[in-house]
Amino acid sequence: MSNWELDMRYQLSHIRAVYNARAGMRLLLLMLLAIMQYLFFSQPYNHDIFIGMAHPSDDPTMPALLTNMMPVAFMSLGIALTLEQPADYLASPDYLVYVRRPRTVGHFFAYLLTIIIYSILYCAIQLIVAIAVVPTSIQTLTLGALQSALILTLLLLVIQIGCLAGNRIGGYLAAATLFATPVTIPPVVAWVSQPLHGLPVCALLVTAATGITLLLFSRWEIQ
After folding, report:
1. How many Å apart are CA 164 and CA 158, to the nearest integer?
2. Using CA atoms, how far apart are residues 147 and 202, in angstroms rounded to an integer?
């Protein structure tokens, strides 16, 4: 078996170990997610819009941020459920790579694939529930779930950029600002709540964040 095959086998086993750890805390967060989802569908929200998307308010006197507490909570739980384990994996040394040598690009792309798959699965579960509740809005909900998955991936990358830059708290603050600021501006909310508008922007931002993360990662040596 070649070194490349050994490396990939190790990385896959490490990813499995990462997500099997801390199962109790993850279960608690999943319970909170279920409660949040129940509150969302039992309240008079616009259920034709995916839970992770910004929701325009019909009441001009209500602050946009208050109207969009559910999307903020949805993304916050999405970040919390990772328990920073993908970031821990990115920081772990490569198999068969000597200490003090840079980690390989394959290591980075295994991390990137992990957070993309996680974001898709996280939103897909909510999408299944949403379609069961509102079966007449499948296309709108699906596009909203796809955009939400891109947003969650972007937020995780922004946090990782902060970690790689040596400022973990700054990464979290940047992610919170990046998501919370637009939902406080009603015209922006009205625009991004339409997936056909937001999808290209989100894809572009994810691509840019991936490039920045890879650049910082390539210069980051095992400590």
Report:
1. 10
2. 7
